[in-house]
Design brief:
Elements lengths: L11 E5 L3 H14 L2 E5 L2 H10 L5 E4 L8 H9 L9 E5 L6 H5 L4 E4 L4 H16 L3 H7 L14
Parallel strand pairs: 1-2, 1-3, 3-4, 4-5
Helix pairs in contact: 2-3
């Protein structure tokens, strides 16, 4: 079934946050903003959901969690070819100059505390970037003009 502009599905966001109140608040905020949301309380459950459930358009990830923290989740995400292309926004109190931030496939680091407007703007920026057509694919899909036959010129 093809989606028209009015039938286009809502972007799906996976929220990985161990604090129940923060996860519930994020889910309510994102749902009211027009996103579909799935939740996981730690990295281990997030990986389990990613293995069996729908593929999210974006992952919103806390770093400091029990069971499996965000660092371990990011490490496993980076080495799984199904998951490494999902953009990830890390929301954490960890400073951006932490060497671990430089080693991981973090699309964006949103330091805590952040406002709802900052969060939605970061998500909207990543989602709209993913929806934009890939210029390489566009170039390859553009028909090329027929080649002009070469003629010999006598001098």
């Amino acid at each position: 079934m093809r989606h028209t502009a009015s039938q286009r599905r809502k972007p799906l966001i996976l929220v990985v946050e161990d604090h129940d109140s923060a996860r519930i608040a994020l889910t309510k905020l994102l749902s009211s903003t027009g996103y579909d949301v799935i939740e996981a309380p730690n990295g281990s459950e997030a990986l389990a959901q990613l293995a069996t459930g729908p593929r999210p358009d974006l992952i919103l990830l806390d770093l400091m969690m029990p069971v499996m923290d965000g660092w371990e989740f990011l490490r496993r995400q980076r080495f799984d070819w199904h998951l490494c292309t999902i953009p990830t926004i890390v929301v954490s109190g960890v400073p951006s100059h932490d060497p671990r931030c430089l080693e991981m496939p973090i699309v964006r680091l949103l330091p805590k505390p952040y406002t709802a407007d900052q969060l939605v703007a970061a998500i909207d920026a990543e989602i709209s970037t993913r929806e934009a057509p890939d210029p390489l694919i566009t170039l390859r899909a553009t028909p090329r003009p027929a080649p002009v036959p070469l003629r010999r010129i006598r001098i």
